[in-house]
Amino acid sequence: MNRGFAFHGAVLGLFCLGFGAVLAVTNRLTEADIAARATEDRQASLGQVIPDGIHDNDLLADVVRIPAEPGREVTVYRAMEKGTVTGVAYEVSGTGYAGKIRMMLGVGADGRVLGVRVLAHRETPGLGDKIEVKKSDWIQRFAGLALGDPPVEKWQVKKDGGQFDQFTGATITPRGVVAAIRDGLAFFSEHQTQLTEVRQDVR
Amino acid sequence: MSDSYGTIARDGLWDNNGVLVMLLGMCPTMAMTNTATNGLGMGLATAVVMAASSLLVAAFRRWITQEVRIPVYILIVASMVTLVDLAMNAWMHELYKVLGLFIPLIVSNCLPLARLESFAAREPVLPSLADGLFMGIGFTLALTAIGAVREVLGAGTLFADAALLLGPAFKFMELRLLPEHMGILMMILPPGGFLVTGLLVVAKRMVDVRAGKPIQMAGAHSAG
Q: Among A8, A11, A1, A6, which residue's Cα sits nearest to residue B60?
């Protein structure tokens, strides 16, 4: 075939156009369902760190955004009962053995941990994955603790002089998790008024 | 014609198996076979993509000119992968949470591309569809087998979380064969993937030698 490059270009262009259209249609068809699934996922992870009994609002609806480091905001979901904030939940992340460990941290209005759950991680299966609630109850030990109970210098794994168990063969993973929760609680006490006040003009 | 469909099926499932003979698609093979369930899910998603893209390439084969065929193949495979990705995210969300990260990996799998170039580009629609399907099923069987061996040796379970993939009715498939902490961790880490794949390639050839079949060298077939 001795057709010019313009012809081949046109053939390729037509294929791109055709499949582009197919993808656009699929995107349109699935968009709503995908958004609904994402909302369900978020609701499920919030439900694990904030007990149902302490709020009467829709967690996803009462959201405040707090600027953290420059260029980054923390989205905080607030649990409210009869108009007062009873707890908050937000994402924290720590550095593990194989990249970031993302967690959802729930904190009560008194500054105590309501619950923590790992959302995503890439730690070694069999060693570092004991941070998942599915594999071990380790992560549940944080519930009820606060910054100061135990004292800040005890918010470390035992190997570093703290009070939290590391795992056999994996220290870096729990170290990252403990540090992330500690920093998450520090974030709460730093922004406590902002997080727990309910502005009357909005309500 | 029925004879040629038989050949296509035998080729895809055993004689010219994508993983165990042609050694193609090693990236998803290594990444997704730490459990039998993951291997099965990855294999099924790949089979769907292969069947659909083989069908499309065969249907459009008169319009796909020699000069731009490779970009068009990649375009078609990538479009099919995106379709599967979006559809699974929307309608099979539990499964998507397990496999989601790895669906885009199918684009980097050279097995679909090899079959498009060596089969679908030359043959009519129906045989091409059959080839894509059987090559995909062969890929699925190989991945499930590798995953099963790695999972039993590494974690002591077989088909863990199968109910997540196939529905609650398949809970019975989830077995624990060895007590916990008995597994050889290395088997579910990347080195285990290489070891088990290598051993299964050897096992497949030994079966063929026993049966008196001539041994096919990797890539000796038109797929290259």
A: A11
pLDDT digits (tens, 9 = 90+) for B66-103: 888 999 999 999 999 999 999 988 988 877 887 777 78
- Tell me the nearest-neighbour CA distance from A183 into chain B, angstroms: 28
Q: A-side interface with B, Cβ within 8 Å?
A: 1, 3, 5, 7-9, 11-12, 15-16, 19, 22-23, 26-27, 29-30, 33-34, 37, 40-41, 124-127
User: Is B65 in contact with B47 (CB distance < 8 Å)?
Assistant: no
For B163-209, what is each residue's pLDDT tens digit? 777 777 788 888 888 776 677 888 888 899 999 999 999 999 999 88
pLDDT attached to residue B2: 55
Q: Which residues contact A79 (CB under 8 A, 6 or more apart)?
A: A50, A54, A55, A57, A59, A62, A85, A86, A87, A88, A89
Nearest to B89 among A23, A30, A126 (CB): A30
Q: What is the ipTM of this complex?
A: 0.78
Spatial distance between the Cα atoms of B57 and A19, rounded to a whole number of angstroms = 13
The tokens of B154 are what? 């590494």
Asked if the peptide bond before residue A150 counts as cis, ω within 30 degrees of 0, the response is yes
Distance CA B173, CA B37 (A): 10
Instruction: Record the pTM.
Output: 0.78
B19-35 tens-digit pLDDT: 888 888 888 888 888 88
CB-CB neighbours of A123 under 10 Å: 24
Minimum CA–CA partner of A33 in chain B? B90
The one-letter amino acid at B122 = R
Cβ <8 Å between B87 and A1: no
Instruction: Extract the runs of DSSP E, i.e. beta strands, from chain A.
Output: 63-67, 73-81, 84-96, 99-108, 113-120
Query: Of A103, A105, A73, which Cα lies nearest the Cα of A194?
Result: A73
CA distance B143 to B147: 6
